[in-house]
């Protein structure tokens, strides 16, 4: 069984904690998107980030999603008919289709083939289109502590080794993309996710204020659990 088959429920739009989290995460991603726009969620899983984009932009954006995991797509299709099974290494879209290609923790799952996936992303992007990457920060102490908590609770799932910011930038630049912006985020918002806590959106909202402050402080910002890279 694919490890992600077991995580469908956790990543589902029906999981309120996950939807609350992406609503807050959208504050760091969506400002980099200009509408009207056509967005590809490349590696969309159960559609949680498709939800983020449609919730934020409504009819101002057309959102399509692909994922190689059939169970994830089955879940995503309950909410988005534009979600379908697909391979990031061979996208079934015409050249210059999208204004934005979004990848959330996709490249780490295809280590050694990142260049091929990014080449495909480049192909389906319009000439002035943007690539947005959201991925876990390998150097984050907070992520290490969260993983320890998950292990204690018996909820830890083994993932491939994550990237450092330097590694991720090198991979993107070696694929003929120009990096426009890069930063760390998620110091508190996602730390409790999956640890069995039942945090309300008002509480998470207060934590997001801390996140915004930490993002701007040198050295402390390196603790961020997530990295975001915007490129063209």
Walk me through the topology.
Blueprint: H1 8-11, H2 16-29, E1 37-42, H3 48-57, E2 61-67, H4 70-76, E3 83-85, E4 98-104, H5 114-124, E5 125-136, H6 141-153, H7 165-173, E6 179-185, H8 201-215, E7 226-231
Parallel strand pairs: 1-2, 1-4, 2-3, 4-5
Antiparallel strand pairs: 5-7, 6-7
Helix pairs in contact: 2-3, 2-8
Describe the structure using short key phrases:
232 residues
Provide a brief overview of the structure:
The chain is of the alpha/beta class and 232 residues long. The chain is 36% helix and 21% strand. The chain is built from 8 helices and 7 strands; from the N terminus they run ααβαβαββαβααβαβ.
Structure description:
The protein has about 230 residues and is of the alpha/beta class. It has a single domain (about 5-230), classed as 3-Layer(aba) Sandwich (Rossmann fold), CATH 3.40.50. The protein has eight helices and seven strands. It has helices at about 10, 15-30, 50-55, 70-75, 115-125, 140-155, 165-175, 200-215; strands at about 35-40, 60-65, 85, 100-105, 125-135, 180-185, 225-230. The protein has a seven-stranded mixed beta sheet with strand order 3-2-1-4-5-7-6, with helices on both faces. Strand 2 (about 60-65), helix 4 and strand 3 (about 85) form a beta-alpha-beta unit. Helix 2 (about 15-30) packs across helix 3 (about 50-55) and helix 2 packs parallel to helix 8. The protein is globular. The N and C termini lie far apart (about 35 Å). The relative contact order is 0.15.
The biggest sheet amounts to: 7 strands, mixed
Radius of gyration, CA atoms, in whole angstroms: 17 Å
Distance between the termini: 36 Å
Tally of separate helices: 8
The CATH architecture would be: 3-Layer(aba) Sandwich
CATH topology: Rossmann fold
């Amino acid at each position: 069984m694919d490890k992600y088959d077991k995580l469908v429920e956790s990543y589902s739009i029906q999981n309120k904690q996950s939807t609350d989290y992406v609503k807050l995460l959208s504050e760091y991603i969506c400002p980099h998107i200009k509408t009207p726009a056509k967005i590809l969620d490349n590696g969309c899983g159960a559609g949680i980030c498709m939800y983020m984009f449609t919730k934020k932009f409504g009819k101002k954006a057309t959102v399509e999603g692909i994922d190689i995991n059939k169970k994830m797509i089955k879940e995503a299709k309950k909410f988005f008919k534009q979600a379908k099974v697909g391979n990031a290494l061979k996208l079934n879209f015409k050249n210059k289709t999208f204004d934005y290609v979004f990848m959330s923790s996709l490249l780490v799952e295809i280590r050694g083939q990142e260049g091929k996936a990014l080449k495909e992303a480049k192909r389906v992007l319009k000439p002035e289109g943007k690539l947005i990457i959201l991925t876990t920060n390998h150097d984050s102490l907070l992520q290490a502590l969260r993983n320890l908590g998950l292990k204690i609770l018996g909820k830890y799932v083994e993932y491939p080794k994550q990237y450092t910011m330097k590694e991720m930038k090198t991979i993107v630049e070696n694929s003929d993309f120009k990096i426009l912006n890069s930063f760390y985020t998620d110091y508190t918002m996602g730390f409790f996710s999956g640890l069995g806590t039942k945090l309300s959106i008002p509480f998470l909202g207060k934590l997001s204020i801390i996140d915004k402050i930490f993002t701007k402080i040198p050295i402390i910002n390196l603790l961020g659990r997530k990295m975001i890279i915007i490129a063209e």
